[in-house]
């Protein structure tokens, strides 16, 4: 199995607060890796380290066996290969839905306007947002914003997509529409790393589940292993807490 | 009785000196406008320079340069915000040639006035722009980073357009202040609207009627500016509603694609609008 991203002895501290401690993990091509764990366990920080929104304190991150912490790697080019969707959508408020999905293609990938438009519409159709190309972010619902954000990331044709709690800021009735977009991406073979509290999604869609606890990966395995037969006491405790809510 | 006398006096002065006033109005508008535009450009440059990010990993020379620039901008802002514009005008108009023994000087009131109004406005705008940049939520910067945009691209396409829109009221404020405050430029013999009053009043000793004309003229200028700014603000805010794109609007491009997901539907409105196509 081809390894796309590998974390080696990754640590991150904010001042004296050590948030990630010696994380080792690999992301395989075509896998959907769900990261679960209690609030404050370092899930977001790990994800943000992967595309260097946070700079690791020590350790290394390899993308196709090359260190991205190496100064010779172009960070902006790397980020076009590893897209990210945020809990808070982070769409550009001064642009229409279409422009949101075109700007990165035109300015970063240097695609022509027409090419960018065609590609943007293609992915907006995929997430069911093509009719809204003329709307601005403040004119659409949260679920629609998140779908646009996914289309914006897809339009860069990334190899990996990172999701940081993509449905946590949504009203319950909108969670489904975003999850079904993500499910269809997974079916098409997109490599995804998803931090989520949606255990149903993790069970159904993930190939691998990482359970994080106080800055370390306490347990990892297939969804069956984690959800039906967890070995770690902490995992058991966390799952019984979250599933019996 | 008093009013008719005033109106008569005003009419008399106006017929005789209207070109003085009109010339003054023209110069005031030009000076305030050019000064505000250049001041905004200075303000944006300062605001951008002050918000250049530095990280611990950066080269020491880059870090030193960024901190030096921040210090220089800070000093500029404090000095020009903290001294009266009239003194700045006098200082540069007379002081520059004094200090350089005539090697450097402003040859006419126009260039000096524009210079002084611009850097004065720039000092105020620098803080406004800096605040405006910082007010854009960090999420949008991260959204831009996450698709590979550089700091410059993020600024240019995401942050600054929104900053401009948000600080438009302050730009308007500065413009209106400039219309009034450029009246101090008579000190360096710039013939703006207030200078017209001084020369007319000096020649006729009709202080009050002339002042009345001036009041009305200044008020007209500022009111007109307010209206224009409101319109501009509205335009930048964009349409308040949007139209759903129909199949034929998408089709010239959609036809060239073979997206496997065409016709996927994740919400109801989508089904409605695309119903005809499927
Ligand atoms: N920029 C920061 N500066 C200082 N501390 C931070 C920063 N970002 C995160 N932390 C700390 O790191 C720890 C882990 O945060 P993180 O956001 O990674 O947790 P999480 O697992 O994503 O939690 P949640 O489920 O609530 O999103 C927390 O204790 C948090 O306070
Ligand atoms: Mg988090």
How are the secondary structure elements laid out?
The complex is a heterodimer of chains A (245) and B (278).
Chain A: E1 3-14, E2 17-28, E3 32-37, H1 43-50, E4 58-63, E5 66-67, H2 75-81, E6 82-85, H3 97-107, H4 113-126, H5 142-154, E7 160-164, H6 172-187, E8 191-195, H7 199-205, E9 208-213, E10 216-221, H8 223-228, H9 233-243
Parallel strand pairs in A: 3-8, 3-9, 6-7, 7-8
Antiparallel strand pairs in A: 1-2, 1-4, 4-5, 9-10
Chain B: H1 2-50, H2 60-81, H3 85-99, H4 109-135, H5 138-146, H6 151-181, H7 193-204, H8 207-237, H9 247-254, H10 268-274
Helix pairs in contact in B: 1-4, 1-6, 1-7, 1-8, 2-4, 3-4, 4-6, 5-6, 6-8, 7-8
The complex binds adenosine-5'-triphosphate and magnesium ion.
Magnesium ion binds next to helix 1 of chain A.
Number of helices of chain B: 10
Straight-line N-to-C gap of chain B: 81 Å
- Which protein chains make the most extensive interface, counting residues with beta carbons within 8 Å of the other chain's beta carbons? A-B, 53 and 44 residues
Across the major sheet of chain A, the strand order is 6-7-8-3-9-10
Largest pleated sheet of chain A: 6 strands, mixed
Q: Please tally the β strands of chain A and state the result.
A: 10
Low-confidence stretches of chain B: 253-278
H/E series of chain B, N to C? Answer: HHHHHHHHHH
Question: Gap between N and C termini of chain A, in Å?
Answer: 37 Å
* Mean pLDDT across residues of chain B: 85
Total number of beta strands of chain B = 0
Helix content of chain A: 25-40%
Task: Please tally the helical runs of chain A, counting DSSP H or I stretches of 4 or more residues.
Answer: 9
> What hetero molecules are in the model?
adenosine-5'-triphosphate, magnesium ion
Uncertain parts of chain A: none
Helix content of chain B: over 70%
User: Could you tell me the strand content of chain A as a percent range?
Assistant: 25-35%
> What Rg of chain A do the Cα atoms give?
18 Å
Oligomer: heterodimer
The coarse silhouette of chain A is globular
